[in-house]
């Protein structure tokens, strides 16, 4: 065989070997639907139920002693009486109870100790969140978790976690501004005709789109930033890489969470508002503890699925 042919054959075989050794592009794995994510979140919570319960009890006791987060100053009994008088008909009771529940949601985190109560409640909720995330991470790695280690070791990324929360707060500004413009236009009768109302609705939606786009990755960054030696901006970049080309799949799964939590908490609290109003604030507070654990378990499960 001529030398040129031998050389060409060697080059061809070398190219084939290089191509075969190159890593192939692995397609994204299917993201579980909301039912599968919810089941996975509940399984993890059940597996770590005693640790999570003790964390929530600790948070509840300290919150009661320092911030009194469940005591919003709202008298459920008097509010229920006043609102029931505004509604008439077969659905008057339900409408009044839902209105009281909405007032409880709006006043949650208030305090009878002064304006600093909300700040204390937020700080305690962040600390409890970090402890829960630490337990969830150890559970996913099949490592044991204790309440002491959850608070001692899990709270170390407090500053990066708060930094991500502040960034999320800034990302919410366009949506808040858009909704404020819409509410002002409706309440001040700036928008009168159907066309004008539609115009302000479109403006509100358009201003909300950047917020929705940013939140689809920033929420995931909350769980990335709790990793060792992770900075806020590095966590945000990693989160953007995780959700790239999958935002439209992730957004419905994120939107499902607040809707499901609202319905679940309402089912827990509304019976007490209707038949045991004095106990409703207590039940509402303990329901909020349950919602906190469910939120982190669901979102952390989503984050883990995006890594695969």
Describe this protein with a few key phrases.
single chain, 308 residues, mainly alpha, 13 helices, 77% helix, 0% strand, disordered N terminus
General description of the model:
- 77% of the residues lie in helices and 0% in strands.
- It has 308 residues and is mainly alpha-helical.
- It has a domain of 182 residues.
- α9 packs antiparallel against α10.
- The N terminus is likely disordered.
Map the helices and strands.
Layout: H1 3-21, H2 34-47, H3 49-67, H4 76-84, H5 92-107, H6 117-140, H7 147-154, H8 158-171, H9 173-187, H10 194-224, H11 232-243, H12 247-275, H13 280-307
Helix pairs in contact: 2-13, 3-6, 4-5, 5-12, 6-7, 6-13, 8-10, 9-10, 10-11, 10-12, 10-13, 12-13
Q: List how many beta strands DSSP finds.
A: 0
String of helices and strands: HHHHHHHHHHHHH
Largest sheet descriptor:
none
> Radius of gyration over alpha carbons?
25 Å
Number of helices: 13
- Note the gap between the termini: 50 Å
Helix content: over 70%
Quaternary class: single chain
Class inferred from helices and paired strands? mainly alpha
Average per-residue pLDDT, rounded, comes to 84
């Amino acid at each position: 065989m001529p030398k040129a042919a031998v050389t060409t054959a060697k080059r061809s075989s070398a190219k084939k070997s290089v191509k075969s050794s190159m890593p192939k592009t692995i397609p994204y794995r299917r993201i579980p639907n909301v039912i599968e994510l919810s089941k996975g979140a509940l399984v993890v919570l059940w597996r770590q139920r005693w640790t999570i319960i003790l964390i929530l009890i600790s948070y509840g006791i300290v919150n009661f002693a320092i911030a009194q987060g469940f005591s919003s100053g709202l008298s459920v009994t008097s509010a229920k009486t006043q609102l029931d008088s505004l509604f008439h008909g077969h659905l008057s009771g339900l409408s009044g109870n839902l209105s009281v529940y909405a007032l409880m949601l709006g006043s949650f985190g208030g305090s009878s100790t002064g304006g600093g109560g909300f700040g204390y409640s937020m700080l305690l909720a962040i600390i409890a969140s970090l402890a829960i995330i630490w337990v969830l991470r150890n559970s996913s790695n099949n490592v044991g978790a204790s309440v002491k280690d959850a608070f001692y070791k899990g709270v170390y990324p407090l500053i990066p976690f708060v930094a991500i929360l502040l960034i999320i707060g800034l990302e919410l500004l366009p949506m808040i501004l858009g909704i404020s413009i819409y509410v002002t236009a409706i309440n001040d009768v700036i928008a009168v005709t159907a066309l004008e109302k539609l115009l302000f609705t479109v403006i509100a939606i358009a201003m909300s789109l950047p917020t929705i786009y940013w939140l689809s990755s920033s929420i995931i960054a909350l769980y990335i930033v709790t990793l060792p030696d992770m900075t806020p901006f590095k966590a945000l970049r990693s989160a953007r890489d995780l959700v790239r080309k999958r935002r439209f799949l992730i957004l419905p799964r994120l939107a499902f969470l607040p809707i499901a939590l609202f319905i679940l908490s309402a089912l827990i609290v509304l019976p007490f508002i209707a038949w045991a109003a004095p106990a409703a604030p207590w039940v509402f507070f303990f329901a909020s503890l349950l919602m906190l654990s469910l939120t982190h378990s669901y979102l952390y499960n989503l984050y883990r699925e995006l890594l695969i």
